[in-house]
Amino acid sequence: MSVDEQEPEYMDHEPDAVPEPSVDQAPTGVLPVVSPPTGALSSERLAIKALETRLLGGERKLRRREVAAGAGVSLLSARKLWRALGFPNFGDQDVAFTERDLAALSTILDLVRAGKLTEEAAISVTRAIGQMTDRMVVWQVEALIEDMVMQQGIPDAVARKQLVNELPNLVDAMEEILLYSWRRQMNAGVQRLAVRAEAGLQASEAGREGDEDDAPLPLARAVGFADLVSYTSLSRRMNEKTLAQLVQRFENKCAEIISIGGGRLVKTVGDEVLYIAETPAAGAEISLALAQAFTEDEILPEARVAMVWGRILSRLGDIYGPTVNLAARLTALAEPGTVLVDEMTAAALGQDERFVLVPQTAENVRGFGEILPVRLARGLGKGLVLD
Fold first, then answer.
1. 317: Cβ–Cβ under 8 A, 6 or more apart, which residues?
2. Domain Guanylate cyclase spans what residues (predicted)?
């Protein structure tokens, strides 16, 4: 993506004599407007149109080439950023953009022109925003629909239609909370950059010396997995609504505990969560709290938990490396309601009186050979205090 490229070869061929879309003919990726027999828009369509105008910051008046030209960039470069944001493909004649789209594109490009971001970084950051906000919006919409179904006793399909009328009362507040949360999370991320767990780092480096797969990775972190026991069999006996409530309860409880422990929930995959923490001790506290919470929960089954201290690569909001793989393998070996760590992680925690470490029988772990699992248990202290 070159921010000042205007070369003709980067521009798509402009078709001749392409008719303008009619009032009722929506461009690609745009919700079509179907006029009732009377020629007037239905109240539902009017509500959708009004909400769209509010969310997009104005009427759709611009075509893609007009937006690219207004931002001073080739169509090719603009399309790279739009794809990163997750936009659908628009044709040359699609009137799909607003002045706010032009302003947003210009903002991204100005960061590159000013040398604050490289082109690659701009696309990566933009993709992160697009993917995370897409997931967030789906989550929020489904949560609102579920609440309407539960509170009003209406069918799901009816709730989805009514949500269009409810959203205008919520949009501003949700936007404000989003910005507030982003700033808080950014601050927390900056604070994490300053954390230096010297004792844990030394234990990790000494314990894994010579591990060519682990040593080159840049970050030392505690990586943990928590996996619900018997989830598959439970899901077969539950209807969709009950299963959704179980999964939501599991995710909410995990997110709360991990947050209180100072960790970060990387992702959830069905009945399993992946999390990280800055120090071996923080990872151990979170892991023990998770195992205890699910053991004591009256609805959820117990969980298997494992945690490994080692080096990782963090990219695209996810984490990678042998440490992650080993933590996943140990989770499968853990007994319900217990926490397993590996021998090197146990060495990093060995002098901490808050933890008791009990070596288990050696296991042959796929991809790692013979591993000595160590059971982690509570020592002195109360552990994480959960409200």
1. 128, 131, 132, 266, 267
2. 222-331
Q: What is the pLDDT of residue 26?
A: 42
Model pLDDT, residue 212: 52
Q: What is the DSSP letter of 62?
A: B
| Cβ 223 vs Cβ 216: under 8 Å | no
Instruction: For tokens 């997009």, name the residue.
Output: 56
Domain definitions of the chain by residue range: 1-16+24-194, 197-378
Mean residue pLDDT of the chain comes to 82
DSSP H/E element including 374 = strand 374-378
Q: To 5 degrees, how large is the angle CA 26–CA 31–CA 32?
A: 45
Q: 78-94 b/e with 16+ CB inside 10 Å = b?
A: bbbbbebbebeebeebb
Report, as ranges of residue numbers, the positions in the chain whose pLDDT lies below 50. 4-39, 196-201, 203-204, 206-210
pLDDT of residue 218: 67
Phi, psi dihedrals of residue 36, rounded to the nearest 5°: -65, 165
Q: How far apart are CA 379 and CA 357, in angstroms?
A: 9
Q: How many residues does the chain have?
A: 387
Asked if residue 374 lies in contact with residue 342, where contact means CB atoms within 8 angstroms, the answer is: yes
Predicted pLDDT of residue 206: 44
pTM of the model: 0.62
CA 378 to chain centre: 31
Architecture of the domain spanning 197-378: 2-Layer Sandwich (3.30)
| 265, β-bridge pairs | 275
- What's the rounded Cα separation, in Å, for the pair 79 and 10? 11
